[in-house]
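User: I would dearly like some help making sense of a protein record. This is the protein in question:
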Amino acid sequence: MDRDTDTSSHSANSTDREAAYRELIIRTSMAFINLPLDQMDDAIAGALGEIGQFFHADRVYVFAYDFSRHLTRNTHEWCAEGIEPQIDNL
């Protein structure tokens, strides 16, 4: 493979990845529009899983920050298969 072909292939892969990322953001955002509060935790868990898989991550977290107390609390965690959860340790 020559350099121009390699650069062109990388550019196409980058464009495909960017389009897939945009699709993930749109799909995730749409899932939360008008979502009843009693379904929010399940929707967050699903979104974290999709995000983690997209980025090939071991874990994905959501933290809530209490500005008045200057504390951070881990509210949600997704772990890839075989990864030990750490939500209770953070």
In short: Strands lie at 59-66, 71-79. Helices lie at 3-32, 40-54. DSSP finds two helices and two strands in the chain.
